[in-house]
Amino acid sequence: MNNSIGIIGMGWVGASVAISILNRGICKNLLVNDINQDIAEGEAMDLNHGSSFYPSAEVKPSSIEDMTGCDAVVITAGRGGTENETRLELLNDNIRIAKNISEKLEGFKGILIIVSNPVDVLTYYYQKFTGLPKHRVIGTGTFLDTARLRDMVGNKMNIEPESIHAYVVGEHGDSEVVLWSGATIGGKPIRQWDIWKPEYEVQIADQVRTAAYQIIKRKGATNHAIGLVTATLLKWILRNERRIVTVSTVQDGPFGLEDVAISLPSIVSSEGVEEIVEIHMNDEEKEKFIHSAEVLKKAVEEVRDV
Prior knowledge:
Helix content is 41%, strand content 20%. It is α/β, with parallel strands linked by helices. The chain folds into 2 domains: 4-139, NAD(P)-binding Rossmann-like Domain (Rossmann fold), CATH 3.40.50.720; 143-302, Lactate dehydrogenase/glycoside hydrolase, family 4, C-terminal (L-2-Hydroxyisocaproate Dehydrogenase, Chain A, domain 2, Alpha-Beta Complex). A 6-stranded parallel β-sheet has the order 3-2-1-4-5-6, with helices on both faces. The longest helix is centred in the C-terminal third of the chain and has 22 residues, at 198-219. The chain is globular and about 55 Å long. The mean pLDDT is 94.
């Protein structure tokens, strides 16, 4: 490979992904594309002007076809959500965009990272449209939700989020599931901490689930946190760090799932998703997780003819 990353879609999210990638020094060549070529060119110029302040890299506007030799391509292209719109309501418009992009990526053999929403359904369709192996098409899924969860628990407990081990699984959206039964702080189950209260679980789960809506209501889009999440995921993959993260891939097997893209803790490496971790869930959590999978399968079926 050639130490290159491509970004398709240079709106709020694409720009945040780009600057996060550059600040981490993840690649030497960053190719950027937008349906509006002027935006891609302008972002490349702007980012290059800051090259004295990040590890050596060159940013270039690019066609999608010229990204087929990249180590990884990030998809942020698509219509953004509005304040009262669910991620699944974005579906039809963004599926059409996905099909067009996939056709232009013919011959791509790297890792495809899907950020656009609804991310789980788009991950499913990008895998089908491109024909890439399932483990090489990865949606950011509930990676961001898990980061939000740890941040909110950390604030409640006055402990740094890095010391908190807790996951959000399922859809990146309204049916997502917080796995409180396995959540720990410093190896001690969170429910055994004296200052933890059961009502926190409902409050925090709701705050995590609605976080994007609250941000969109105030500023029109969510971009900085997902930019950091995406750049971090790319760093761990391209450096073959074999980290465990909650990302979305097309599942066949775990928890009896079949042909649905959904988030579970996964070992990610330079090969993509190496292994799915069948994390413990209690009966209530497992029931909610299976329901989340059914929500996503229904969404996929609704656009089957697009």
